[in-house]
């Protein structure tokens, strides 16, 4: 069990090193956005893309995990519910936590949901929760090293 954990930790630390090297080289940042209604985030996504950030969209947790394994991301943004799966965002965060995720996870949801369920996400490594698109943009810019 410890060996498996160490292997995962070493792999993730290698990814962090690669992300840091990318920032030094000013390479394009990549964001994974998980939401079953991505059209609701159109303005934020277009703004990020206009600033040179690649935004990969996933509609389901399964798609998100597939993309997460294939690419290196600066951050992951998730909603809390997808379709009838009201805990989909939580489950995604739980899976990533169990896989020793090291990238910042941002939860973008309604204010009521954040107030009601926000404390559940914190132990899973979620670094930021908001219902405000401007606060979300500001946090993403900070993560990828872009000035507002």
Fold and architecture overview:
The chain is α/β, with parallel strands linked by helices and 148 residues long. The protein is globular, with a radius of gyration of 15 Å. It has a single domain, classed as Response regulator (Rossmann fold), CATH 3.40.50.2300. The chain contains 6 helices and 5 strands; from the N terminus they run αβαβαβαβαβα. The longest helix is centred in the first third of the chain and has 24 residues. It has a 5-stranded parallel β-sheet, sandwiched between helices.
Task: Give structural attributes.
148 residues, alpha/beta, Rossmann fold, five-stranded parallel sheet, 16% strand
* Name of the top-level CATH class: Alpha Beta
Q: Percentage of helical residues?
A: 40-55%
Query: Terminal Cα separation, in Å?
Result: 44 Å
Q: What's the gyration radius in Å? A: 15 Å
CATH superfamily: Response regulator
Which blocks of ≥5 consecutive residues have pLDDT under 50? none
């Amino acid at each position: 069990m410890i060996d498996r954990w160490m292997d995962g930790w070493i792999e993730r630390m290698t990814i962090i090193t690669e992300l840091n090297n990318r920032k030094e080289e000013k390479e394009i940042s990549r964001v994974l956005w998980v939401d079953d209604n991505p059209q609701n985030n159109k303005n934020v996504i277009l703004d990020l893309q206009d600033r040179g950030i690649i935004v990969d969209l996933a509609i389901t947790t399964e798609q998100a995990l597939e993309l997460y394994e294939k690419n290196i991301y600066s951050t992951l943004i998730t909603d809390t519910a997808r379709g009838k799966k009201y805990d989909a965002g939580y489950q995604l965060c739980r899976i990533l936590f169990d896989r020793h995720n090291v990238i910042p996870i941002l939860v973008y949801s309604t204010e009521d949901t954040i107030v009601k369920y926000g404390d559940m996400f914190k132990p899973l490594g979620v670094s930021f929760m908001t219902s405000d698109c401007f606060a979300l943009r500001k946090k993403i810019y900070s993560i990828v090293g872009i000035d507002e």
